[in-house]
Amino acid sequence: MTQFVRNAWYVAGWSRDFGAALRPLEITGEHMVLYRASDGRVIALEDRCPHRLLPLSKGKRIGDTVQCGYHGMTFGTDGRCVRVPGQENLPASAYVAAYPVEERHGIVWVWPGEPEKADRDAVFDMPELADPSWHVHQGDALHIRAHYLNVAENLVDPAHVSFVHPTTLGNAASENVPVHVSTSGAVITAWRWIRDAEPIGFFKAFGGFSGNVDRWHYYHLHLPSTAVIDFGSADAALALAEEDRGQGVRIFAIHFVTPVNADETVDHWMHVRNTALGDEAASAQMDAMFRVAFAEDKEILEAIHVSEARPQRRKPVRIAIDKGPNVYRKRIRDLVEAEATEDLGAPVAPSFIQHD
Amino acid sequence: MTQFVRNAWYVAGWSRDFGAALRPLEITGEHMVLYRASDGRVIALEDRCPHRLLPLSKGKRIGDTVQCGYHGMTFGTDGRCVRVPGQENLPASAYVAAYPVEERHGIVWVWPGEPEKADRDAVFDMPELADPSWHVHQGDALHIRAHYLNVAENLVDPAHVSFVHPTTLGNAASENVPVHVSTSGAVITAWRWIRDAEPIGFFKAFGGFSGNVDRWHYYHLHLPSTAVIDFGSADAALALAEEDRGQGVRIFAIHFVTPVNADETVDHWMHVRNTALGDEAASAQMDAMFRVAFAEDKEILEAIHVSEARPQRRKPVRIAIDKGPNVYRKRIRDLVEAEATEDLGAPVAPSFIQHD
Amino acid sequence: MTQFVRNAWYVAGWSRDFGAALRPLEITGEHMVLYRASDGRVIALEDRCPHRLLPLSKGKRIGDTVQCGYHGMTFGTDGRCVRVPGQENLPASAYVAAYPVEERHGIVWVWPGEPEKADRDAVFDMPELADPSWHVHQGDALHIRAHYLNVAENLVDPAHVSFVHPTTLGNAASENVPVHVSTSGAVITAWRWIRDAEPIGFFKAFGGFSGNVDRWHYYHLHLPSTAVIDFGSADAALALAEEDRGQGVRIFAIHFVTPVNADETVDHWMHVRNTALGDEAASAQMDAMFRVAFAEDKEILEAIHVSEARPQRRKPVRIAIDKGPNVYRKRIRDLVEAEATEDLGAPVAPSFIQHD
């Protein structure tokens, strides 16, 4: 059960990753070739010549078209065949799929599902990405040998932080602090405040705090798999209200979780902050701390992936802190079910009639 | 068909292999984590947190308990959950299996099957292991990519020695000497004497023989997979009776064959001798010779493992020298059958009634 | 679907590849051990002892027989068992298959199918291999991770040359030149002439042409998988007729395509030429150019092999230039069907009767 939501936007890479060269990528099990056309648009085509199945990424560009490296069959940016060497006619079935692409804020998104359902307004956005009072910094593309649902649920799960990241993002102070979960549209939020406690490693380094702080973690998981983690700290003496947390030192860690296939996932992560604006040394320091923390997640998630493949004698157990992950998995199952079936509309009369 | 006997003791390692650290091991396809508790006992728990399936060996010890590395669920030495962070109640289903462990003569045994059937008196033992007139020396843990039945049957098969180990444990003199096989309880014994022949390499090195010797090999295979190979030589002029072989130079090579899974086996081997007592240089020399010989077995057994996985057009043939292996495989099949079924006891009246 | 034609001769290697040593090989999924007997014949036996399945290639030669490395069971050059250590009788079922072998022109052929059908007159031959006015040179054994049908069809497919080998064997001049296809018995031929065009890299190097040439490619594919590519160039001013191409600079590139298994193929290639006779420097230069070209094929074919293993949503398309490959695949399907069924002969009366 791959459980991919195909009618969705997924991050293919940063804008800088795409140029003239043909770049193969796999997203939700779809093999694609991406390149930037002469007008600047990023093009995503099915990476499989319909003739002998050679990946088109093994061919070459002829202007904005892609010529197969085996027999020269050539395809335009819309996937239609424009040349078959050795014959005049171009058969209608000689095409490759063309995937909708959207590029915004230096991020390239691809829609692997039905093209006619691609809604360009549904691409993830947040005002801070274009606001000069925030510093935006792109991090890495972290490859993880794990199922994307396990990667994404980790990002709506504040409870793991104390145990997986004790020296960077968490500490023992939060081990038993309850987690709140709410949903709003396509966003699931899990959060908790740890009041009047020692600052974690991250904010010792960047917040300059020495005494106790109030610390918050808001995990916003936008379906299917984009996570925005709003976390920060403020002097405990201020006793800030939740809605005033913008007055503290605040960071958004954003994870764009892209399912590659049933065994692989890529997490493109970046961060946005209201402190140290324009300070690239601070960005590099944060990158370094995040790399330590995310490598901790990667180790856990890859070990779970191996463990899940073993025969299971008993069902896993669910516990109180799973509320965010549980809601998330249910929502994904519903989306997958909706994609796998055709909804023919509501009945004209009530469907369920109660007889006395 | 894995053909594992699960209700049995298997060697997990030497005593020195287990300390405070969490050590993952696989035995008969069971993934376990082993560690030595503060009272000195070796503990073996199922290596799978029941929550998100992370192997507990990725977590850490908190005193004698093991805390999962993902969300901190914690288990005692009996496998019961003692803490679930974020909640007060400890669900009954939140446990991991705890495997019986027995440690004796510097050897750690684990019982992967039903714990209530673990009979501590059934752990393999022999008086020479505690007798100061014998020198006991632990060898290596040899990893073999082969099915354990092929590894173990090799140890009740004197006939292979002339061909696999011509320079160490055998020579051409024994090629056609018949093999005797007998069984006694859970022990199958195959043996032969080669009378009045040139000594093999091993006893040239350790027995100091130059003229002809009488040489014996007794292969005792204790079900399911512990082999004691009693071999030695004596001056041919003595014409020793079988039961007097203790007067010769005598060595027990002991192999504890542990099935890892259907493709992997570990052979912990050691040796016990009535010569060169306390002479560690002699032990090291013997280790070196055994390593040569067992590497010869490993090469053969791993090649067979690959060959067995290929499609087979014809049934293998059985020949006269297979008597020991044949008896062994039949006994294992019977044990596996007994474990796979429930015996509800004998009938109160004869089951089979003959009508005239 | 492996689609192996088993009743056929396949190249096992060059004569120099076989000596006293036991050499394991896989052909059409059959595991064989080959060695040269004392009378000079190359022997090919099933590489699996019928006793415990150890490959005989792990054993050793005793004279012209092969002794298994595990228990010494020994087999003659005809595959019959000649010794079972530990017993007198030699069971009739204790044999290994012996494969027909034919050696000619320094090439060793094996017949993996039914031995009684092996027709030694059917081994591929051509007069130039024994004609001193031609220079014969053996090249490499190229291992390709691809299905042999894809490798062989590439050799009856002139259309790929312009795109895969633009700097060595082809150039853009041929991209749209039509391909002719004919069949004669067990040979499928695809060919084309490119008249009055710039010489390709190969003939710039070896023909000494500077002005325009007429260039030909004849791809003769002998079923099941031996390809003879007759290619050459002549001064365009001569306007040679097809049958007079022997007057030009002419090369036969010969490929012996041996299916290893469903995922691997070996291409033993050699070349034969009517120019630079006896010039080993020229042979080495040609080898170097062929190695570049065949590495280009290998890259394409291996990428296709990976692509074919992916789930396919749509059927591949066939185009005009596929005529040679299409005929080839149909002929192979017919041969495989013929091998898989028993033909009990023609009916004595018409089978199909039309009623008015």
Would you kindly provide a written description of the structure presented here, covering whatever features stand out?
Chain A has 356 residues and is of the alpha+beta class. The first copy, chain A, folds into two domains: 10-120, Rieske Iron-sulfur Protein, CATH 2.102.10.10; 127-335, Naphthalene 1,2-dioxygenase Alpha Subunit, Chain A, domain 1, CATH 3.90.380. Helices cover 18% and strands 31% of the residues of chain A. The first copy, chain A, is built from five helices and 18 strands. Chain A has helices at 148-153, 161-164, 201-206, 280-308, 323-340; strands at residues 10-14, 23-27, 30-36, 42-46, 60-62, 65-67, 74-75, 81-83, 98-99, 101-104, 107-110, 135-144, 180-184, 187-197, 213-222, 226-235, 249-261, 264-273. In chain A, the strands form four sheets. Chain A has a seven-stranded antiparallel beta sheet. A four-stranded antiparallel beta sheet of chain A has the order 2-3-4-9, with no helix packed on it. The first copy, chain A, is globular. The model of chain A has no long low-confidence stretch (mean pLDDT 93). The B-C interface holds B 150, 157, 159-160, 162-164, 175-176, 178-179, 299-300, 303-304, 307-308, 310-312, 314, 316-322 and C 29, 31, 48, 50-55, 58, 67-73, 84-87, 91, 93-94.
